[in-house]
């Protein structure tokens, strides 16, 4: 499972972007909510976050092995 390893909104705030500014000018309200909830984001959104916060994708995301997930993926190919 890929998940956020940092609080993205906190990193963006540290870089000078409040939630209000993000929602009004850069990202949609639903994307900001996904960032807040740790939900799914697109590569375009990840690119924007990296650009604005001065981070690399590896600074933001991590892979955590979930055995059930691997089994499910393998079963889909059998």
Automatic annotation (TrEMBL):
Query: Which range is the signal sequence, renumbered to this chain?
Result: none
Q: Which GO terms describe its molecular function?
A: DNA binding
The HTH cro/C1-type domain, residue ranges: 12-64
Tree of life domain: Bacteria
Q: What is this protein called?
A: XRE family transcriptional regulator
